[in-house]
Write a structure and sequence with these properties.
Layout: H1 2-12, E1 49-51, E2 54-56, E3 65-73, E4 76-83, E5 86-88, E6 102-104, E7 109-115, E8 125-132, E9 137-148, E10 155-156, E11 161-165, E12 179-186, H2 191-198, E13 213-215, H3 218-227, H4 233-238, E14 244-249, H5 255-259, E15 275-280, E16 286-292, E17 300-304, E18 319-320, E19 327-328, H6 330-340
Length: about 350
């Protein structure tokens, strides 16, 4: 049935190119569709967990967001490690237990990066596809592959096979074979300059290094798109929860805002503001960018969702503090440098 639907899709779609800022045309990255079922454990690959001496294999460890590294705090158990994508378990294996699943592009796009090496990245072998509906470049990433079948520069359609599932990369074995899928925004075109200032190791992946890609909630996006096939990215991001705001020194145009102009609020009110205020989800996805009259010398937190525990646990370590007070950690400062090209 899927091959028939894909054949129809490939025949009809070229006659109707995507409209400006139009629907996403989103499809699942494998034949596993249990994310829409009453039992999502059949969709997600589990993680091996040892918490306070208790061994477990929770499928929730394969979900997007803060789903790993439990910590007991004064407000209860919190999950402190950010997982920027979803880990999808195979639906087919051979007699030796090797996964047989094809990996499909989740949307129309162009292959912009193929890492054919099983080493040199926690992702193992991975492939990145560029998507653009007229309001900014977005990137889907598929990791831990056995092999990539699509090639650099190839244009692909939603639902077109681009790779084979595997278990390459750090911490993955045959039993836990899965594909890790992300849906990202690009932080900086000048990533290499930022990287060289903070790392001594070689960057083997150019601007498609994972540090330069910030992953939004792809699971929520898949479900929202199923409920509304006409959904657009700006509509989806408008539904995400604000967690904190940061003022960044102004006096210049922002390349990030140039790439994603739909995030701008009141940007025509002033050409070179004293500062720019970014609004973020807890996972670091920018929701809005607005000029501000306040002068700041360095990135400054102006709002955080109040919490009874350390903000570092809830923001991938980018903020510190608790209650309604927060400041940027060193990693948070580096993140703001990257997204604002302030380096």
């Amino acid at each position: 049935m899927r091959s028939l639907l894909l054949a129809i899709h490939l025949v009809i779609l070229p006659l109707f190119p995507p409209l400006f800022a139009g629907p996403l045309g989103l499809m699942l990255p494998t034949d596993n569709d249990a994310i829409f079922s009453a039992d999502p454990s059949k969709f997600y690959m589990y993680t091996d967990r040892n918490f306070e001496g208790v061994q477990s294999k929770p499928w929730q460890g394969g979900t997007y967001g803060f789903s790993r590294n439990q910590k007991r705090t004064s407000v209860g158990i919190v999950y402190t490690r950010l997982h920027e994508g979803v880990d999808i378990r195979p639906v087919r294996r051979d007699d030796s237990g090797n996964p047989l699943d094809d990996i499909y592009s989740i949307m129309d796009g162009t292959v912009v990066y193929v890492n054919a090496s099983s080493t040199g990245s926690n992702y193992g072998r991975y492939i990145v596809v560029h998507h653009d509906w007229g309001y900014g470049p977005f990137f889907s990433l598929y990791a831990h592959l056995s092999s990539a079948t699509a090639t650099l520069g190839q244009k692909v359609r939603a639902g077109q096979p681009i790779a084979k599932m595997g278990y390459t990369g750090a911490g993955i074995n045959r039993e836990r074979a899965h594909v890790h899928v992300e849906f990202n925004m690009l932080l900086s075109d000048r990533f290499q300059v930022w990287y060289d200032r903070h790392f001594t190791s070689k960057n083997n992946h150019g601007i498609y290094n994972g540090f330069n890609l910030t992953g939004m909630d792809i699971a929520a996006l898949l479900k929202a798109h199923r409920a509304n096939p006409n959904l657009t990215i700006d509509q989806f991001l408008a539904s995400q929860e604000l967690h904190y705001k940061v003022l960044i020194p102004g006096g210049k145009k922002l390349d990030f805002l140039r790439r994603y102009p739909f995030l701008g609020r009141n940007v025509n009110s002033v050409m070179f503001p004293k500062s720019w205020e970014f609004s973020f989800t807890a996972t670091g996805i920018p929701l809005a960018i607005e000029p501000n009259k306040q002068q700041v010398s360095y990135p400054t937190v102006t709002y955080v969702k109040p919490s009874g525990t350390d903000h570092s646990y809830l923001t991938a370590g980018r903020l510190s503090g608790s209650g309604s007070t927060a400041k940027l950690s060193p990693s948070g400062s580096r993140y703001m440098q990257l997204i604002s090209d302030s380096f």
